[in-house]
Every structure is written in C-alpha cells, then in structure tokens.
C-alpha cells in the first residue's frame, strides 16, 4: 500500500493509535498513552508561539527511503510548506522533526527515524522523553544543548 491508499482506506480511519509504513508498504502501529498526546499538544503550542513564520504540523507524514514515517510534531518554513502543503505525505522532511517517546519505541527505531529525517532534509530532530526532557540533534553537529532554529524553546516540557 502507498500512503495515499492508507489515508483513503475507510477501514483505517479513526484508529486509536498512530500508523506508519515500512519499505514494503506494510503498516506499523504504535500505541501511545494519553501523556503522549499531551506532550504533542504542548510542544506544538510552544513551537507555534516561538516561530512566527512557518507551519507547525502534528502527525506529519514524511516519505522516506524506508516507507512513510510520521513525526509527532514538525515545523516547516513558509517556503518548504508552500511546496508540500497539499501532499498526503511530505516528499521532503520538515526543517524540525519531533518524536515523543512511547513505551513501544526502541532506541534503534528512533535512531533510524532520525537518520531518515536527516537524509530527507531535516535540519533538526528533537526527542521528547517520557519525563518531558527534550534532546536536540542537528544534522551537522549531532547532539546539541538547545535548538539552533528555536533557541528559546525549553529543554523540559511540563504536562
């Protein structure tokens, strides 16, 4: 299945969990706690408040070499947003891709997603822990103490 077929399939509408696809078009399902959604909303709110220009997107589908991955929260510059806003999945990564750790995530999986987002054009990857701590990564520098694109963003999220 391609991403448009997945999005259009009535049997896959209103699922209580996030889905992604792998290289073969198989669905990958990730259950998450309510706190996951609360972190997602708080991060999106703070990011929107911090960035006057650009678009904040939740559940952002990104086409990668390993199938469609879905960033929990993402930020696009106005320029990049104009290029992708009508797509089912973004052919290029947003400038910032944010993942919120769930119990079902593995370090290997999150590391692979970070690599895929960077290979597809992301400038930063943020990882929110189950305790609300944010780790920031730059495509060029690796782990960084704070975001270069949004330096005022907090390093801990309270919910």
Can you give a write-up of this model?
The protein has 159 residues and is of the alpha+beta class. It has one domain: tt1808, chain A, CATH 3.90.1570.10. The chain is built from 4 helices and 8 strands, in the order αββαββαβαβββ. The protein has helices at 3-8, 34-50, 78-84, 107-119; strands at residues 18-21, 27-30, 55-64, 67-76, 96-100, 124-128, 134-138, 142-144. The strands form 2 sheets. Strands 3-4-5-6-7-8 form a 6-stranded mixed sheet. The chain has a two-stranded antiparallel sheet with strand order 1-2. β1 and β2 (27-30) form a beta hairpin. It is globular, with a radius of gyration of 15 Å. The N and C termini lie far apart (36 Å). The mean pLDDT is 87.
Low-confidence stretches: none
User: Kindly state the mean pLDDT as a whole number?
Assistant: 87
According to CATH, the homologous superfamily is: tt1808, chain A
| CATH architecture label name | Alpha-Beta Complex
The rounded distance between the terminal residues' Cα atoms is 36 Å
What is the structural class?
Answer: alpha+beta
Number of strands: 8
Shape category: globular
List the helices and strands in order. Answer: HEEHEEHEHEEE
Helical residue percent band: 25-40%
Q: Going across the major beta sheet, what is the strand order?
A: 3-4-5-6-7-8
Major sheet summary line: 6 strands, mixed
CATH topology: tt1808, chain A
Rounded to the nearest angstrom, the radius of gyration is: 15 Å
Q: Number of helical segments?
A: 4
CATH class: Alpha Beta
Q: Domain count, please report it.
A: 1
């Amino acid at each position: 299945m391609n991403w448009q077929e997945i999005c259009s399939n009535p049997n896959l509408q209103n699922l209580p969990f996030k889905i992604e696809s792998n290289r073969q078009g198989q669905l990958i399902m990730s259950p998450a706690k309510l706190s996951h959604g609360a972190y997602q909303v708080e991060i999106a709110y703070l990011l929107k408040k911090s960035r006057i220009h650009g678009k904040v997107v939740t559940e952002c589908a990104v086409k990668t070499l390993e199938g469609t991955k879905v960033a929990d929260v993402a930020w696009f510059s106005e320029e990049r947003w104009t290029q992708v806003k009508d797509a089912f999945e973004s052919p290029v990564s947003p400038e910032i891709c944010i993942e919120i750790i769930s119990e079902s995530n593995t370090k290997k999986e999150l590391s692979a997603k970070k690599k895929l987002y960077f290979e597809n054009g992301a400038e930063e990857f943020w990882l929110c822990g189950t305790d609300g701590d944010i780790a920031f990564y730059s495509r060029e520098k690796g782990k960084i103490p704070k975001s270069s694109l949004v330096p005022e963003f907090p390093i801990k999220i309270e919910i």
